[in-house]
Amino acid sequence: MHYSLFPLLMLITLSMLKCGFSLSNTSKMNIPYLLNQPDKIVELPDELVEISGITLSSDEQHFFAVQDEQGMVFKIDRNQGTVISNFRFEKDGDYEDIVQTNEHLFVLKSNGTIYQISAPAAPQQSVEKFNTQHLTSEADTEGLTWDSANNRLLIACKNATSRSEERAIYTFDLTTQQFSDAPIFNIQAKAIYDFLHAHPILEKWNQLIQLFDPKSFSFAPSGIAIHPQNKDIFILSAVGNALVVLSENGDIKHVEKLDKSIHYQPEGICFSQDGTLYISNEGKNNKKGNIVEIIARE
To answer: Where residue 172 sits, what CATH number does that domain have?
Structure first.
């Protein structure tokens, strides 16, 4: 009797998986974060409703942030979300992300231009601008992070730079101050589509399949960050509210749909040195901008 039921149970199980039902929370085990169960959400003041990028300061006591259309950097209290101060680094424009290195702040513009800010907010502050020959405003560069192991910046493009079913990540070498001629990684729709078919128990599987369908690929990187310990690369997309995680070699490790009620427009992402993850959201539908804190689990 028990053995005769086994084929039926297997058929039901496979049917559930195919339909995208999750039998457990195993999708959350691929990364040590419960992305849709944040530990803390800090609302931001109205002046940061269009926050587009965040980074922690070197001492990790506060955030630096930029927002669309203003050539300003905002210093934000890490716990309260209040603006401590701000300072100008350039005239107004479409600024998309910011990152702190050991020595400088770097800001990314949507046309691929990078601004290096030395002694930020100090009387001796200076700004150096680096223009790329390969990237334009059509690529819409939106993600910037520091790859400390290789002393370079990673630049994520929101739009396709060559093929419609790919999204490119370029580099800027901090030693030579040169942009890479070709992408270091290409986020390929088919590769993620195949990954999803190999992992049918991922939560919201059906929605992810639609997002990464090569015929209608709409994943559009809006933020990028490198995990401080394992060097995994976390890539946000405000379009489709999704996150893709790559290994440091570019292999796909995880794909997840973000809850729109929490991450209503995820644009910025960064880590603290202990691995705590922070995602910033632009304000939307009368909601204030925010910073979501997610502590790593074992």
So the answer is: 2.120.10.30
